[in-house]
Design goal:
By secondary structure, the protein is an all-beta fold. The chain has one domain: OB fold (Dihydrolipoamide Acetyltransferase, E2P) (Beta Barrel). About 0% of the residues lie in helices and about 40% in strands. The strands form three sheets. Strands 1, 2, 3, 6, 7, 9 and 10 form a seven-stranded mixed beta sheet that branches. It is globular and about 50 Å long.
Length: about 130
């Protein structure tokens, strides 16, 4: 199992491309593989809380010759959907990246997760991890 890599959110400032939506749920099949369960919200393995997904983007660095933005999805486990304003900067609490290898394709992938969303000015913290 790969180790989580903590991300310094003081140096990494993504833009939210979407509001929080229910996270995908997957069911395990008898052969050990998994499949998407339409219409079912995913739950966190450790806490049992519902999962939420937020699509984000980070602009390309000035010295990036390709000049491409990077898009990714961050998963958050919380009882209620985090309050997110699309097309605005977003700050995650305890943001981590977990590198892995896709079992079907053998390609490297990166899974992103956070404990919550930092409060915007005048708003309260939207994550509510179980103690």
């Amino acid at each position: 199992m790969a180790a989580d890599l903590p991300i310094d959110t003081n140096k990494f400032r993504p833009i939210a491309l979407s509001g929080a939506r229910p996270g995908a749920a997957f069911g395990e099949l008898s052969d050990g593989s998994s499949r998407f369960l339409p219409g079912v919200q995913g739950t966190d393995r450790d806490t049992g809380l519902p999962t939420w997904e937020i699509d984000c983007a980070v602009a390309a660095d000035a010295d990036d010759q390709r000049g491409r933005a990077t898009n990714f999805t961050v998963k958050i486990a919380a009882q209620h959907a985090p309050q997110v304003t699309p097309l605005q900067p977003i700050t995650f609490v305890d943001l981590v990246a977990r590198p892995a290898v896709n079992k079907k394709t053998g390609q490297a992938v990166c899974y992103w997760s956070a404990a919550g969303v930092a409060p915007a000015a005048g708003k309260s913290f939207s994550g509510d991890k179980a103690a």
